[in-house]
Write a structure and sequence with these properties.
Radius of gyration of chain B: 25 Å
Shape of chain A: flat
Number of strands of chain B: 0
Shape of chain B: elongated
Strand content of chain B: under 5%
Largest interface: A-B, 65 and 61 residues
Number of strands of chain A: 0
CATH architecture of the largest domain in chain A: Orthogonal Bundle
Largest sheet of chain A: none
Number of domains of chain A: 2
CATH architecture of the largest domain in chain B: Orthogonal Bundle
Oligomer: heterodimer
Chain lengths: 281, 291
């Protein structure tokens, strides 16, 4: 009972802090503090509710339990992280995005291919491509190569569509200016059109970060060596070791947001000139 | 219409590549078999064999088409359109959790978006988490949700729909927040001069203005929702649904079954997204917003 009251109190406190802060003018500090307070409040309420209602840890472990498990199992978690995130997701991400940009540049030279490939690419991007995971696992074996292959296929089409769209961003006036400078195709590509396409390319890269991790994890449900985040999650669920599953989910969350954050940082450095990036102190 | 010919060309190229790939990938098995039987295969025999194996590495399109016909049209003709071996049955299972999850996700997304637009505290505290929640590979949580909800006695449709909901609410939130904020200051001022109450501003200006954004997000949400439903079917021990067909197919090496489930999923996605596109066109036309 005390735990539940404590949970309610935490809720009220968090609410009060956030409403007072939100009423103040928006600064960088309030903009970071408010979401952090919200997140902390949710975690405290979670802890209080789990303890107060005595929810069995098999169903929903308390955050403190997950934290303890996380600290004790760092060796396993790190091994899984390397297997899934670095070997599977990251290598596939680099290959898939690289290939998509190259294909987009090739397609860009031919309006015929553009008109043909874009609708097909858009269509394929809407399909449930994860379904291809069992096939690629059969082709490339259980280890990380098959996971990388799934990631390549998953990130390719969103990336292709975005890049092709980005390459069309320059207007006739700008291209004419390049022509008056006597710039060749490649010069115009590298000095005008690729930089102009960067906001679109980074949009695709950001979408692809999540897809890459999803692809790598799901592919492990269809068979994997005895390490990897997807493997650990599906076997630990079977053993009812829910705290380990949640620790693994924390790792996935950290990997996902870290990956996304890294791409967003690079984006800010590369496309500093774009209106969406300007005026962010 | 201009793009019909290029699109057809690309599709034809894809099919040619598919057939060629089937030859390349299946040739070794055909060669091995011929060697064991002690016969020499001519080129045409080899090609014919690679396109008609039982468990090929890459089934040829016509094999997949035949399998789909066998599990849909032919079963309907026999009057067993909804038996457990029919793809219609499995598609229906996946379809129902997809739509349920999609509806829940849309309601949640629109609700959150309204809250975010009208409440400053919510805007500042929830919005960053909504965005952060999508950088997380949510799929990791799918087996967890299914098993836990099973343990508390909820099984069947709802757990899968929850995963679909989680995947589909995000595009809706982002699109709706953008859409509800899309009226210009001048239009909002106009509402004020007419002495409109906040709810009138919402129903007569903000909501109609957000429709184009809403439909774009709904299409993305529907695609995401289908992915969620398929993945939600994996850890349930492969009972029913397109995801289950994928899993059993991969256990028993039934590649043709995997591919037919995949094609079915793709068709389902295309139909569902196409339906939303149709509703979008009709609605926007009647609202006078069609481009």
């Amino acid at each position: 009972m005390t735990w539940l009251v404590a949970g309610l109190a935490a809720w009220a406190l968090g609410w009060w802090i956030n409403t007072t802060l939100a009423r103040r003018p928006r600064t960088r500090i309030t903009r970071t503090v408010v979401p952090v307070v919200f997140g902390l409040t949710v975690i405290v309420i979670w802890e209080c509710v789990v303890r107060g209602l005595a929810i069995p840890s098999v169903l929903l472990p308390a955050p403190t339990m997950i934290a303890v498990r996380f600290i004790h199992a760092t060796a396993i978690l790190w091994e899984d992280f390397v297997q899934t995130a670095i070997k599977g997701a990251l290598s596939g991400y680099v290959m898939g995005c690289g290939a998509a940009v190259l294909v987009a540049i090739a397609v860009d030279r031919s309006p015929f291919l553009q008109r043909g490939l874009l609708p097909v690419g858009n269509f394929v991007a809407a399909l449930p491509i994860v379904g291809i995971a069992p096939i690629l696992v059969m082709w490339f074996g259980f280890d990380w190569q098959s996971k990388a292959a799934v990631v390549v296929v998953m990130v390719f089409f969103p990336m292709l569509v975005n890049t092709v769209q980005g390459l069309q961003e320059t207007d006739a006036m700008q291209r004419d200016l390049m022509r008056t400078y006597a710039a060749g195709y490649w010069q115009a590509l590298f000095k005008l059109r690729l930089p102009a396409a960067m906001p679109f390319i980074f949009n695709g890269l950001k979408i692809a970060t999540t897809l890459a991790l999803i692809g790598a994890i799901v592919a492990e449900f269809f068979g994997s060596p005895i390490r990897g985040m997807g493997f650990r999650i599906s076997t630990s669920v079977g053993q009812l070791a829910t705290d380990l599953v949640w620790a693994e989910i924390v790792v996935a969350a950290l990997a996902g947001s870290g990956f996304y954050g890294a791409v967003a940082l690079i984006e800010r450095a590369v496309t500093f000139w774009h209106p969406s990036q300007r005026g962010r102190g | 219409m201009r793009s019909v010919f290029p699109v057809l060309t690309v599709v034809v190229v894809i099919f040619i590549a598919w057939y060629a790939g089937a030859i390349a990938l299946n040739a070794r098995w055909a060669d091995d078999k011929a060697e064991r039987a002690g016969v020499e295969l001519s080129l045409t025999e080899l090609v014919a064999d690679t396109w008609s194996q039982d468990k090929p590495k890459l089934p040829a399109p016509h094999q997949v088409a035949a399998e789909i016909w066998k599990t849909t049209g032919a079963m309907v003709a026999k009057g067993r359109g909804f038996s457990k071996r029919s793809l219609f049955y499995h598609s229906w299972v996946t379809f129902s959790s997809t739509t349920l999850g999609f509806l829940m996700g849309t309601v949640l997304g629109v609700g959150l978006a309204v809250g975010i637009v009208y409440n400053r505290t919510m805007d500042m505290s929830v919005m960053p988490w909504v965005i952060a929640s999508q950088t997380i590979p949510i799929i990791a949580i799918a087996p967890m949700i299914i098993v836990v909800l099973n343990a508390v006695g909820i099984s069947g449709l709802l757990p899968k729909a929850m995963i679909s909901m989680y995947l589909s609410f995000f595009p809706v939130v982002v699109g709706m927040v953008k859409g509800l904020r899309s009226p210009q200051v001048m239009q909002l001022d106009q509402m004020r001069t007419w002495n409109a109450s906040p709810s009138q501003t919402f129903w007569k200006l903000r909501l109609p203005a957000s429709m184009p954004y809403l439909f774009t997000s709904l299409k993305i949400a529907m695609a995401a929702s289908l992915v969620g439903a398929i993945i939600g079917e994996l850890p349930t021990g492969a009972v029913a649904g397109l995801g289950a067909r994928l899993l059993t197919g991969s256990y028993y090496g039934q590649t043709i079954q995997i591919w037919s489930a995949l094609v079915m999923a793709a068709t389902l996605a295309a139909v569902l997204v196409g339906l939303i596109g149709l509703v979008q066109r009709i609605t926007l036309k009647r609202m006078g917003m069609a481009q």
